[in-house]
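Dear H.,

Thanks for agreeing to be a second pair of eyes. The structure we're designing against is below in token form, covering all 127 positions.
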């Protein structure tokens, strides 16, 4: 069992930056790739970024490439999402997920393969 707790969300203006954190606890956290997802009002949950078990590999969804950076500190069991140049389109609830597989895309079916989810943290970007 793995518990995930996100923090760092808030309300910012377009062009600002935020850093989200997700701290994992429980058994064998090292066995999981850790990923960020987001869900905007009225939309489905979408993949944002993923980092491998070691932290050596990462992958990003096209809308955030070049603006967001995912990183992982295994000593602290924490994954971060540095978000720069935020736009109103980034407004969403951001969720951390733990997946035994390092995936480069998430269909609805693959979202069901994410074993553990955090409770989410709200990010609101105004123009």
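And this is the sequence the design step returned. I haven't edited it by hand at all.
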């Amino acid at each position: 069992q793995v518990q995930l707790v996100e923090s760092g969300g808030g309300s910012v203006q377009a062009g600002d930056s935020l850093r989200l954190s997700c701290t994992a606890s429980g058994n064998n956290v090292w066995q999981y790739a850790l990923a960020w997802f987001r869900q905007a009002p009225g939309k489905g949950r979408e993949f944002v970024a993923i980092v491998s078990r070691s932290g050596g590999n990462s992958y990003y969804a096209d809308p955030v490439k070049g603006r967001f950076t995912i990183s992982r500190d295994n000593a602290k069991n924490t994954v971060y999402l540095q978000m720069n140049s935020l736009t109103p389109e980034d407004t969403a609830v951001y969720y951390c997920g733990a997946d035994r597989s390092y995936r480069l895309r998430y269909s609805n079916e693959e979202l069901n393969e994410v074993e553990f989810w955090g409770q989410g943290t709200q990010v609101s970007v105004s123009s």
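Two observations from my side: The mean pLDDT is 96. The first helix runs from residue 108 to 111.

Warmly,
E.
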